[in-house]
Amino acid sequence: MNETSTKDPRIIPSSGVGKLRASLNVIIGNGKRFIGYEIIKRLNVQKQHSVLTILSEAVDPAERKRNKQHEVWQGTFDVKGCRTEAFILQKLNYMHLNPCNERWRLAEKPCDYEHSSAAFYQFGKQGTVPIRDYQDFLALLLEMEERERKIQRDESTNSRTRAQR
What is the pLDDT of residues 4-34, one digit of tens each? Predict the structure, then answer.
């Protein structure tokens, strides 16, 4: 890898967690853009003109001048680092209850919503998309954070040793 490519914030270096410089905003933005294109393509194939009209009407006038035709996503997202089990459970409960929310009314109970992981956590039942338990990822996160602390301690020790020479 050459020097210029390692300076690109979109590049995820293979040298460890501490060196991870990928911007979450870039990753999420790219994902939303490509998923949005696919949604529009499928809506066109299915001739869902009423939905396409709604998405077209949602485009901000300034964006329309830049030739944006549809607004699939809300403008922002709120990134939260999930670093404790209590916080992860709070977010899981929110996601599981959201389809039952009065605003959406997509399901009576969280387990009734086909795209929810609620049935996995409540009954151990896999749905259409395979689910892994959050505890697997929490353990991995803790392990990665411990490795990162060790790397930082080692780098600090090495810096002090070089300074003493």
Answer: 444 544 444 444 444 344 577 788 888 999 9
Containing 133, the helix (H) or strand (E) segment is none
Q: How many CA atoms does the CB half-sphere of 126 hold within 13 Å?
A: 5
| In contact, 71 and 107? CB cutoff 8 Å | no
Q: Helix H segments across 46-97?
A: 49-57, 61-65, 85-97
Q: Is residue 79 part of a domain?
A: no
- Structural tokens at position 16: 């460890």
Would you say residue 65 lies in a domain? yes
**Residue 34 structure tokens:** 């490509």
For residue 96, being part of any structural domain is answered with no
Number of domains the chain is built from? 1
- CB neighbourhood size of 91 (10 A): 12
Is 149 part of a structural domain of the chain? no
> What b/e readout covers 51-74, taking b as 16+ CB neighbours within 10 angstroms?
ebeebeeebeeeeeeeeeebbebe
The DSSP symbol for 10 reads T
Domain residues for 48? 1-73
